[in-house]
Specification:
CATH architecture: Ribbon
Largest sheet: 8 strands, antiparallel
Low-confidence stretches: 68-76
Number of helices: 3
Strand content: 25-35%
CATH topology: Umud Fragment, subunit A
Structural class: alpha+beta
Shape: elongated
Helix content: 10-25%
CATH superfamily: Umud Fragment, subunit A
Number of strands: 12
Distance between the termini: 46 Å
Order of helices and strands: HEEHEHEEEEEEEEE
Length: 193
């Protein structure tokens, strides 16, 4: 009995330490398609931005402070029993409003969106992560406030991101971490770029 208690206590301590450095999360939606897909399970590095700043092109998870739609009926949840079990283990209750997006610009940068293209500091940016034919909707010309970031999803036609007031500019203290690794589905396991 003492051995079992020791194993359990050790496992809990190790898990508590690991969670300080990495955190699991699940993609909910298609705003990052085809880089990330709905229901992909990700591991995020929660320590990276404690010692450095997000860089252009990083895929980040952040808190929007937006409450989840109270009309959402969890009883109609379409996840199968395996995915529900994984969510339970990962601590994902699917009720949070954390978003996953890509950093496009940082404080002090000028972002211009016009004719379906994105310029940062008057230079057209290369976006190899976008699917062929993908354009960026909107007409924007803004200076990103200091200590904030301008983010967008890779699926620009459906992404709620910094182009819209509901999300706006993201302050560093809202950033939970950088997407480090895709855990599931098994066919797509590996690092994410």
């Amino acid at each position: 009995m003492k051995e079992w208690i020791g194993v359990i206590v050790t496992a809990v301590i190790i898990a508590a330490v690991v969670v300080q450095f990495i955190r699991p999360t699940r993609v909910d939606g298609d705003s990052m398609y085809s880089t990330l897909e709905n229901n992909d399970y990700l591991i995020i590095n929660t320590m990276k931005y404690r010692f450095s700043e997000p860089e252009k092109g990083d895929i980040i998870i952040f808190d929007t402070d937006t409450p989840l739609d109270p009309a959402m009926d969890m009883s109609t949840d379409s996840r199968n029993i395996l995915k529900k079990g994984i969510d339970f283990v990962l601590g994902d209750d699917s009720r949070t409003k954390d978003l996953v997006k890509r950093v496009i610009a940082e404080g002090g940068d000028r972002v211009q969106i016009s004719d379906g293209k994105v310029w940062v500091n008057e230079e057209l940016i290369e976006e190899p992560y976008l699917d062929p034919g993908m354009t960026t909707e909107g007409e924007i010309d803004v200076i990103v406030p200091e200590n904030t970031f301008f983010v967008m999803g890779d699926n620009r036609t459906v992404s709620l991101d910094s182009r819209y007031a509901e999300v706006g500019f993201i302050s560093k203290d809202k950033i939970m971490g950088e997407v480090m690794f895709r855990l599931l589905p098994v066919s797509s396991i590996g690092t994410v770029k």
